[in-house]
Amino acid sequence: MKNYLTEGFFGVADHAEFMSGLKHSVDHLKARAGIYAGDQLFTFHRNLSFLDDEKFMAAFTRHAVTPSEKAILWRQSVVAWGARNALRLEGDLVECACYKGTTARIVCDYLDLAGRNDRCYYLYDLFEHDPSLPHHAMPEHGSELFDWVKARFADCPNVFVTKGSVPEVLSELAPKRIAFLHLDLNNADAEVGALEVLFERMVPGAVLILDDYGWLGYRAQKLAEDAWFEKRGYRVLELPTGQGLLTK
Q: Does the predicted model carry a pTM greater than 0.90?
């Protein structure tokens, strides 16, 4: 039975003491099997099925290189699952706020999207940040990030990387039929705006992943989205990963 342990926990007052306590907990398990530690998750006696998916793990290992990227393996597996579901449907894949493109690159490799002519992947981001923006900055934001991400997908002619503010940029380029949608905008107004444009384009059976839905720091998004979906007869499932899951 495989384990997956990282030191990627965020918002901890004393990280060293926290990790020491976590090690103490692991050492006192009756059976040290099926353990996952990282990204605010500590679980044990789990199957951790994604660790047995060799193709997914190869893609993840190839592209998740920073400590924070490595810590969110379980989140990445949820996105990969949703994207894989798209292959049995008609429509394209969309990610709003792709940042460095790590998640999308893992999905592309996992699903061999570069070799498919029946599927496109649309990625959106501002790629830069200034203090006037409502969401927080990320370490790699800057004037060179857009070109860097485009180069990352140079071998994928069916991946379209678009720079601009969501939802406004969606009027310039967006698919008419969507089989998978991933939102990670860190901003309630932007995510609701994206839903206003894109949700009706999701085909029946399409999966929506809301990356920030379960996190207290982004509670405003959850509240806004709950109200939006309630009007349409839907309810989002909060996952232990902090993501929200919904099937159209």
A: yes
